[in-house]
What does this fold into?
Amino acid sequence: MRRDVEATAEAARHVVFDTDLDEVSLRHPAQSAFLGPLLARAVLDLATAEAAAGVALAERTGAWPRIAAVEPRLHDRLLASHLAARPPAGGADTQELDRWWDEATGLTVRLLAARPTPEGARLAALVLDSCPPARAGGLHRRARAALGPAPSADAIDHVLATGRADGTTEPLASWQRAWDWSPVLPPELLTGFAPLMAALLRHKPAGPADPRSAPDLAPLRHTVTLEEEDLAELAAAAGPPAAAALADAPDAGADGYASVLQRLVEADPAAWTADVPQILEALARPELRAFYLAAAALAARRPGAFPAALTLRRTLPAGQPRSSTALFADQAAFGLLDIVWRTGADLADDLPAVLDHLHALAEPLTRPATGSDGTGGAAEPAGDLLGSAPPVRALGCLLAYATAQARVGAAMPDDVLHLTAATLTAHPGDDAVATAIGVHLPALHHHAPAFTALRRPPHGCAGAAPTRTCSPPSAESSSSPPCARNCPAPASTWHTPC
It folds into this structure.
């Protein structure tokens, strides 16, 4: 990633990385126009997997200063994303807890000295809202200094009367940072900024946008009959269910309504996820329901807009052919369950039904492939992305569940480990299967050592130099694997390439 950043002109880097890194997905690389955000997402996913496996914060971010050396702001966005996604868990040891708070508070102060990014704003909101009392006083003093001095009312009136009010020129550009950050700042940090807030509010009556969920700029494409602006006005006046007009459009099943619904949900995620069954009933058509569910799954990341995962799952259309409807329905189901596992949301009595469904989807992987898709069934339509087949995604979702269980001290479920073993036996060398399992290798090594020990290469290393891979120590011995002396990495990282 450092080399990719170095190869990008400094003036162009803000364009290349002008996207919310938490919204970038390696499963959907076509959504990103540049390689840089995908590499950033890979760095974050690796750190998340290592965190789930119990690797300390200092170790999993130890190589990131290389990125800071060439692009400090990008480094801070990466670190903010990771710290916000992996706050200290209950029962974390004191040293790891102190390390997280040291990193998080220091980074928050640095972030407040510049314009907000979605990743930075999410971390700042978390830190300022939950900072331990012993740290809060010092944090607030440093944060207030980072925001800069509050301008006087006379200075504000003079600048607004003689200069541009869009915040692109000084000194208004510096003053406006407090406005941009204000939705996530506690009142005590805004002391003295009231005249500025009032003056800017006269120019921007809608108020400051929430920096945690600034929507991506999207080109307007007139590919559907109903205008997005008309639907947005209708939803604002009568509530989202009024968008049932979509179902009556002459082209109601057109794929273009997927983008329309995504932008409508992004504009007001709380309203569009407050009563999911009502909106689903209003949309009527299975295609529109699938498009909406996928948009709601994306909105689940956003503050105050976590939809009822089980309600969404139950309303997914079943029995549809492999189509846009099925694609968006799958995306919604797996995306929401991934959020459930990562956040620890409780599905309570409904969890067995969800797990049964995932096992049923993944079961074809336990049989040798009869088609060209490597899933034991007919080949997927041309153009499907690697790992997008429902059985492979279901396997990955079950492994994510097992990792979540291990994270709270429970054992990884035996049925998930048996499914994984049967899949490896039925599909040796399959890229999609290897990718789905590989994401969870650190957690498997850490939480299911007996399982991984049984599947290590028989002679310690697999493959020929220089890409040999170290094998784990045996469960019976703590000695280094036979190839450890040839590996630059410590034996504890035996799952990485030598």
Remarks:
- Residues 155 and 196 are 10 Å apart (CA to CA).
- Confidence is low (pLDDT under 50) at residues 302-310, 372-386, 458-498.
- The beta strands are 461-462, 469-470.
- The radius of gyration is 25 Å.
